[in-house]
Amino acid sequence: MRRLPTRTIADTNAVASVLKPSRLSGWLGLVLIFASASVWAGDRLSPAAIVASPDGAKVYVACGSDAQVKVVDVLVGQVTASIRVQPNPTGLALSSDGNRLFVTCAGTTSKICMVDLLRGKVIETLTAGHTAMAPVLSPDGKILFVCNQFNDDVSVLEIASGKELRRIPVRREPVAAALTLDGQYLLVANHLPAGRADQPPVAAVVSVIDVAAGRVVKELPLPNGSSSLQDIRISPDGKYAVVTHILGRYAMPTTQLDRGWMNTNAKTIIALDRLEILNTVLLDDVDRGAANPWGVAWSADSRTLVVAHAGTHEVSVIDFAGVLARLAKLPATASAEAAADYSRSSHSQSDVPNDLAFLVGLRQRIKLPAGDLGPRSLVVAGNCAVSANYFSDSLTVIDLAQPGAAARRIALGPKLEMSLTQRGEFFFHDAGICFQGWQSCASCHPGDGRVDGLNWDLLNDGIGNPKNTKNLLLVHQTPPAMSTGIRDSAETAVRAGIRHILFTVQPPEVASALDAWLKSLPPVPSPHLVNGKFSAAAKRGEELFRSRAVGCSQCHPAPLFTDLHTSPVGTGGPLDQGLEQFDTPTLIEVWRTAPYLHDGSAATLRDVLITRNPNNEHGKTSQLTPSQVDDLIAYVLSL
User: Against a cut of 0.70, is the pTM above it?
Assistant: First the structure.
């Protein structure tokens, strides 16, 4: 068979900083470096979550890469205390009396630190699942709900006993949650779509959990192309929830960015009286994107909604009451007379998710002060909106009574210069290097360079042949790049992406910084490991994987689990224009990169091995028994 020319790796020194082989067999001998903020130096803070005291006088800030919570006096504008937590914190929940703070600290087995704020120290520790975040307290303060991102479930923890009462499975990568005021339903924002990418609709969902029943009773699908959900918050009056996300127009060839041609940025409104989607409203302007919407916060009267734009370093202050009034005026379907009215873009409810002018007159876009970068988490404290800025270790305070007034900046620590790798992480999440700010690299590669679950028709290899978004982990160590191997290296792909996906020309140091950060990314240990080791099924699967009879290791040899070649594996389809050679991907972290194959046509690894492998062209699996297939899958999912 023909092989495209590629570089080879004579030894594993190129990945020694990420993968450290030991004498143990296979992947079990690779010691993974796992940290929630892997590339930041220890003196960086990386504020990742924020919550306000009941009186709004103070805010508590989780510093994601420095294992502490900062206590900040909002009025004075100073840090008044620091509380150590271990490991690095991802989320916060405050008791109604303001005396106890619950801090999720992510790991393969996560900790929840219960902080006595009167004493300023951790008094108890609970445990949860893999990469816990977004803690939510029940109205009576007795139960804590925690999203376990990589277990795809929610822990229900009894605070008094410290016991985990149950795990509730949800769809895919839960990252945010909110509880209805009566405590009946927990709404969970799932970060990514689940299922195939080649059959619409492809969209993430909000899971609705009946708390008493302990199970999901409804799923609320967002519009086709919705991915990268980041936050969900319920209005103080209990009537609505809002979830932030990206709305990708993945069915279009990526020939331009104008007017949201590729990615738009949105909030979806949920009517809680009937637990249904009310509508999806774009946060962009006609000629100016509002990339990477993240945190959400409400004013006390529920009339004002605040949204952080992490990619454009802005905050939107939205007249939510006005949004509802404008939506109420629209019919479900447009009449012929309404369609002829060219004075407005939306003539019906169905037009709204495509209307870049819907928020005109209802929203103020506020640029953060110079140097405040990457607003992610938001809270309303008293009459002020406060954003926690991930890349600048700062808070921005905006007076909601006078949103046009100058915003205040509060430094959480000393100003530090970014290293090359840190600049790379910043550029990866910065829509400032994109034409009109429509998107950042992270728009298609959320979760530190991973996947969005969508197929995109990029211009690397022509038009009309969409490919599934690839994981960028180890991309520099496993050339060639792209599904067809059309880029000889990740360095080439990074520079082509800036020009042909972000549609700008940047100084060489931008691409160099991006290279440095991507090279630094560590694999995350699989949630399928048992106490950090292979399960019995995975051990049996490893033997099958290595056997000549199955042949997986011939194209996926350890330690990189790729032979660095392209091969004909029988997965070419009608949109591939006769192409049959596809890059052999690394299997490291394959557990988090579904859907699979170059066209996203395999929702699961079982589909890869069985449904999409009728001629044994990527693994000789037809002779395996069902239990052997289960073992093989258990091994691959553990990598």
Answer: yes
